[in-house]
UniProtKB/TrEMBL annotation:
Role of this protein: Catalyzes the phosphorylation of ribose at O-5 in a reaction requiring ATP and magnesium. The resulting D-ribose-5-phosphate can then be used either for sythesis of nucleotides, histidine, and tryptophan, or as a component of the pentose phosphate pathway.
Catalytic residues in the record: D239 (proton acceptor)
Family as reported in the entry's similarity comment: Belongs to the carbohydrate kinase PfkB family. Ribokinase subfamily.
Recorded metabolic or biological pathway in which this protein acts: Carbohydrate metabolism; D-ribose degradation; D-ribose 5-phosphate from beta-D-ribopyranose: step 2/2
Lineage: Bacteria, Pseudomonadati, Pseudomonadota, Gammaproteobacteria, Steroidobacterales
Residues of the Carbohydrate kinase PfkB domain: 2-281
Keywords, ordered alphabetically: ATP-binding, Carbohydrate metabolism, Cytoplasm, Kinase, Magnesium, Metal-binding, Nucleotide-binding, Potassium, Transferase
InterPro entries: PfkB_dom, Ribo/fructo_kinase, Ribokinase, Ribokinase-like
Protein name: Ribokinase
Species this protein is from: Steroidobacter gossypii
Length: 291
């Protein structure tokens, strides 16, 4: 059973001809809200695409933005532990997407910033803890250490990119990064294989977009080709990859198979718009992998 502890946001997306410059007002086209945040996206990916029993610890404000986030998690079959606060708004992201698919994003983390060590639920019954870096770093460290001490497998998606303290790395079993995040942790020197070797974690995985992913596990390097697709919107591909990989590991699949499944799910997520809305179901994923 998987516990995801992390961020949940409501994304406000407006499409416009171009992204406004400072002081400029642009009349946009359509407007939509989407449930997002790396934590919530990955919890949905675990439950929906990975078909794994999943719970999520999250913090929400007492405002109108909380309900759509809760509905989205519950529709995907994610059980929740919700910390509610009157002092901060629910996490939000304001996204402007231009006609050439560039975007400008402003995130107001709000309630995500109040999660602290005291909020971690009892870990009895959980086998895997999945974390990202959109809640306070000290909280991530406290959760990782508590889970490690109780024998859970700790999976960290080190996003957004930042260097990581050694006491966090010491509590992590599986580290998932993209190329930018890998550079933030292990520098630019050397090829990918050498940079993976330099990180002192039992298993490190780097996602490489259309090229798939590489993993370093107990000194062995594994490479998985990406699945060829015509991408429409790559938002959420990384989150889908992390959720499905954790789900596959929680079911005892060998790493090579878990990587292949996560790669397939990441590729499928690129063929649809949005983040949570682009995450495939388990049945869709199985069909895609057999095709
Ligand atoms: P992030 O979105 O976090 O930057 P990546 O771009 O590396 O991460 O994508 C995560 C995973 O999603 C990849 O490892 C791959 O499995 C899948 N993926 C992303 N882009 C593509 C693509 N264009 N074609 C096929 N698969 C993709």
């Amino acid at each position: 059973m998987i516990l995801v502890a992390g961020s949940a946001n409501l994304d406000f997306v407006v499409r416009a001809s171009h992204i406004p410059a400072a002081g400029e007002t642009v009349l946009g086209y359509d407007f939509q809200t989407y449930s997002g945040g790396k934590g919530a996206n990955q919890a949905v990916a675990c439950a929906r695409a990975g078909n794994a029993a999943t719970s999520m610890l999250l913090a929400l404000g007492e405002d109108a933005f909380a309900a759509p986030i809760e509905a989205s998690l519950s529709n995907a079959g994610v059980r929740t532990y919700i910390v509610r606060t009157r002092d901060r708004s629910t996490g939000t992201a304001f996204i402007c997407v231009s006609a050439v698919a560039e975007n400008a994003i402003t995130v107001a983390p709000g309630a995500n910033e109040i999660l602290d060590a005291s909020h971690l639920p009892p870990l009895h019954g959980y086998t895997h803890l999945l974390l990202q870096l959109e809640i306070p770093l000290q909280t991530v460290i406290a959760y990782a250490r508590a889970a490690k001490m109780q024998g859970l497998t700790v999976v960290l998606n080190a996003a957004p990119a930042q260097s990581l303290p050694l006491d966090l790395l010491a509590a992590v079993d599986v580290l998932i990064v993209n190329e930018v995040e890998l550079t933030a942790i292990s520098g630019r020197d050397g090829d990918i294989a050498h940079r993976l070797e330099r990180i002192d974690v039992p298993c490190v995985i780097v996602t490489l977009g259309a090229r798939g992913c590489w993993a370093r596990l107990a000194g062995e390097l594994m490479m998985q080709q990406g699945f060829p697709v015509t991408p429409v919107d790559t938002t959420g591909a990384g989150d889908t990859f992390c959720g499905v990989l954790t789900a596959a590991l929680s079911k005892g699949l060998p790493m090579a198979e878990a990587l292949r499944m996560a790669n397939a799910a990441g590729a499928l997520a690129c063929t649809r718009p949005g983040a949570q809305s682009s995450i495939p179901t388990h049945a869709e994923l199985q069909e895609f992998m057999l095709a």
